[in-house]
Amino acid sequence: MLNYDLVVVGGGPAGMAAALKAKEEGVEKIVILERAETLGGLLEQCIHTGFGLHYFGEELSGPEYAGRFIELVEKTDIDVFTDTMVLNISDDNVVTAVNNNEGLMQFKAIAVVLAMGCRERPRGALSIAGSRPAGIMTAGTAQKYVNIDGYMPGKKVVILGSGDIGLIMARRMTLEGAEVKVVCELMPYSGGLTRNIVQCLDDFGIPLRLSCTVVKTHGKDRLEGVTIAQVDEKLQAIPGTEEYIECDTLLLSVGLIPENELTRAVGIDLDPVTSGAVVDEYRETSHKGVFACGNVLHVHDLVDYVTLESQTAGEGAARYVLGKTEDAAYVATKGVNGVRYIVPQKINIKNEGDVKLYFRVGQVYKNAKTVVKYNGEEIISKKRPRLAPGEMENVIIKNDMLKGFAEGGVIEISVEV
Q: 230 with 271, same domain?
């Protein structure tokens, strides 16, 4: 049994930021457990730039962004176990893990931070007719083939889904000499950042078709083409709109799923919308001493936001380890009228600081305003020229405002057009 003050599960940007913040706050014995062979998470294969604009004030590639945090971790006495899989977390925060060198290990922790990230939704989750030829893969898998392994998945490409990974891979495949025929998006709006639509599609003349999906794949051994079709308001294919497109590769960018099998096994309460844990303002879950942050909690647009949130979780874990937590009296948060979810889902009104609420809308709005109400009474209103599901929003609840709330109250955020 190895004794630690804090065990961090996951060595990507979230896990490293949480560990570093906890160390800064005075936690002495910290260990990071990472299942990959190196720290950095998926940033290692994201060789495009656009990272760090908010946090560092400069534009970095994914490996550069990860590298800065890896250097900071190496300058501390934080222990790191890579190529290590976490199997279980007990009720009293004993973390069981395994690797090739040490075999089965147990870490007794005062606090645990969950930072396992997310995974892509696979083809099996989609209702696409056709055979199962080679050439159909997730956009992230293609990104690893091209950027890490040096392989080209194909030459004629169709991309289903306009999430950020799909948009970035449309540009990447084009730069490597492939012909990207079209990007199809089931919804009537793109799921990616506006800057990625402009830089990855518009700048390269790649068409984006909204309210459009792949209904059938063709080919036996290798993909030969796909049939696409327009969809109606119920997202069902419209007969007569089918179109065959010749291609040898279909990349799927159809959503990310927080990696919460471990969280679920511990018995932690999960939010049905985010698929992540229900947390308070310090990102503590329903399991005492267990915190969650980053894409395992809810999917973020920017790694900069992952870092900032993870520092909050690291501070919360440090407070728990050092016994600095205060009495708790919670108000709940709730998204209504166009707001799909809010993180955190509850706030301790006895907390001493301001609280930032992150939320996403369910559709595109123009010239709307976000309204924050406490028990039905408006407390904040903010005009926005554009709101979109692909871009996370936030609002700050000042501490003096929190002091006026009562336990059991409800903070609602809505969209008014």
A: no
